[in-house]
Amino acid sequence: MGEVSSFVLPPTPLVIDGITFPAFVTPPDSSKPFFLGGAGVRGLDIGGQFIKFTVIAVYLEESALQILAQKWSSNTADELTGSLEFYRDIINGPFKKFYQIAFLRHLTGEQYTDKVIENSVNHWKVVGISVEKEAEAVDKFKDVFKPETFPPGTSIFFTQCPSGSISIAFSKDDSVPETNNAVIENTALSYTVLETIIGQIPVSPAAKRSLAVRFSEHFKLLSTTISQAKEQMEVPRVSPNHLKLLLN
């Protein structure tokens, strides 16, 4: 028998700035499809104009839906958006995360990593993680990206494992590669890259909001289905007087 799906209705794909993010994708070096949690642009206000640089999509293992629903199923999209704890449960949850960085503007590998590391270091300082202790992982991260360049249409893929590793893959388009280019074993870096995207100071508020909206929709459907199932299982109560009438 096949596995029972957690989805009442299958997730839907998203199209953002001409880039299609499928409802399901299979990460490199994996045979298990992940579902699309949410996606949104990353940009900066430059000279009074919002300039888009990338679009970020976050995928998760299917088990994430049931795990998160246990705590958050009664919350609306606005309530989830306003809860840092909800996003920390995504980031720190015991399931794999897979996210795609699709480029809209040209960046070098060094330009990309400089900003990622800057944001990561700022977060580590806030939460009390020793920057010096993570220096080796930071250097490895920079080395992986140093020879790379990312013109529009190219993508970076990250796989975050609960064990504390982060896998990195590069693609010349938006297709998912079959294998990873590198794996870095470092818990702080593994969790912090996604933290900088959807955490307390997110580089993509749009992706963060998208996760809240789409998860709230899944939760609502799941709660409705469970309620209906419980109602169908309940045995109707018959009063003594009604029972007498039925027996006469």
UniProtKB/TrEMBL annotation:
Q: Transmembrane region positions?
A: none
The alphabetical list of record keywords is: Flavonoid biosynthesis, Isomerase
Kindly tell me the pathway this chain contributes to: Secondary metabolite biosynthesis; flavonoid biosynthesis
One Pfam family recorded for the sequence:
Chalcone
Q: Does the record's keyword annotation contain Isomerase? A: yes
Extract the SUPFAM superfamilies matched here.
Chalcone isomerase
Kinase as a keyword? no
Biological processes, Gene Ontology terms: flavonoid biosynthetic process
Q: Which domain of life is it from?
A: Eukaryota
**Gene Ontology MF terms:** chalcone isomerase activity
Q: What catalytic activity is recorded?
A: a chalcone = a flavanone
UniProt xrefs under PANTHER family: CHALCONE--FLAVANONE ISOMERASE 1-RELATED (PTHR28039:SF8), CHALCONE--FLAVONONE ISOMERASE 1-RELATED (PTHR28039)
> What family name appears in the similarity comment?
Belongs to the chalcone isomerase family.
Name by which UniProt lists this protein:
Chalcone-flavonone isomerase family protein
